[in-house]
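Question (not urgent): is this output format expected?
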Amino acid sequence: MAICFFLLGSLLVSVAQADKLPFMNQSKIRVVVAPGERAFGEIALDNPTAEAKNMRLYLEDWYYLPGGSGAKEFLPANSIPTSACPWISFSPAEVVIPAYGKQKISYSVNAPADATGARFATLFFETLISKGVMAGSAERSAGLDINVRVATLFYVEVKGTIERTAKLDNLNIQPAKEQKGPAHADIDITLDFENTGNTDITTSGSFSLINNDGLVAARGAFNSVYTFPGGKGSLLGTWKDLIPPGDYDLIIVVDLGKALTDAGTGRGPVITKEASLTIGENNRIVQIGQLQ
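Got this back:
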C-alpha cells in the first residue's frame, strides 16, 4: 500500500481526490548488492484517471520512530548515517503520465567498495491533484495548490556484511491493563527488544506455556516490532482464558526475518527463550524464573 502525504496547506483530501493519484507497483523495494557493485530495477507507475499527470521525483531519508510501532519520520536526503540516497540514481526525474497510461522509472543502486550493513531511502512521487482559489477580492485572490506525494521505500543491504541480531530481556508477566476475556483474568507477557545488528528488523513472535506433561496450556502471538540498528521496542502478548494452577515452561520464539519473508527474499534468524513460571488461582502469577 502506498504512503500518502498531503502538502502545501491541505488539511483534508477526500477519497475522490485520492482516487486521482497515480499508483506504483512497488511501495517497498529490498535490494541486496555486493560491495563495489550495482543493482538495477524498475518501478511502474499507473495513471487510472482521464487526465494526464505531471509527477516530480526526488529522494529523501527515512527511519523508524522510537518505540517500534512502525511509525516513520522523513528527512531531506543525506541527513542521517543510514541514508542510501548517495547510492541511488533514477530516471527520469520528471514525468508526464498520459490519461490511463503507464510510465516506468528506472533506478540503480551502487554500493561503495567499502560499504557494510544496510542503508535506507525513500523515492517520492509528487503530483498536483487540485487547484483552489482563496477567498477575497479579484485583486487579492490567489491559487492554492494541493500537492500529494506517494513513496517507495528502499531497503538496501550490502551482501556478505549483514548482521541480523537482537537482544530480549526484562520479561514481565502481569494482569492485563484491559480485561477482555470471559474470566476477567487476562495476563500480559512483555519483553524489551533491542536491535543489536546493522540492518532493519521486523519481528514476528509467539509464546507457549507447556505444562509438566509436555502439553500446551496456552499459546499466543506478540505484536510486531519495527526497528533500525540500535532501535528498541516492546513485545506484548496477551492470554485471555484461565490457566490451571501449576508449574509451566514459558517458551518465547521471535523471528527476526519477518521483513524478508514478507518481501519473498529469504528468512531471518530465530531467537528462542525459556523461563519457568508458576501460576496460581485465577491466573495469579506466583513466580517467574530467569529468562534463558
